[in-house]
Amino acid sequence: MGNGTSIGRVRGLGAAKTGVHHWLLQRFTAIGNLLTGIFLAVSLVLLPDLSYASVAEWLARPVPAVAMILLVVTTFWHARLGLQVLVEDYVHEHANKFACIVALNLAACGGIAFGVFCVIRLALGAHA
């Protein structure tokens, strides 16, 4: 049974070196998105109304705030993982690939930071 090509086995580049980790991370973030998305949808349906005040009051509780932070983190991380695969598959020049991956990581980290900041700001009551 194969572990890749002969030269790949010698160099340690056979199947399942880093791809499995990436694949598992993508599945875990997808499950996190699904669970926190369902929590968000059910919570919003159970609110008496969808006014800014009632949603901000709901978000000021610890469990919804943590769940929304997790939703922000897993959504941006899942998007980063998926777009990284696209870049690795379709950008062939190494310098361009590196630049795209760096830009992708910066955008994902910036989105996470901004989303977490917004949730914390709302949860702490800084709304007007």
Helix run count = 5
CATH topology: 3 helical TM bundles of succinate and fumarate reductases
| CATH homology superfamily | Fumarate reductase/succinate dehydrogenase, transmembrane subunit
End-to-end Cα distance, whole Å, is 65 Å
Query: What characterizes the major β-sheet?
Result: none
Rg over alpha carbons: 20 Å
**Which structural class do the helices and strands define?**
mainly alpha
Strand content: under 5%
Overall pLDDT? 88
**Which CATH class?**
Mainly Alpha
Properties at a glance:
mainly alpha, 3 helical TM bundles of succinate and fumarate reductases, elongated
Q: What does this entry look like structurally?
A:
79% of the residues lie in helices and 0% in strands. With 128 residues, it is mainly alpha-helical. The protein has a single domain, classed as 3 helical TM bundles of succinate and fumarate reductases (Up-down Bundle), CATH 1.20.1300. Helix 4 runs antiparallel to helix 5. It is elongated, with a radius of gyration of 20 Å.
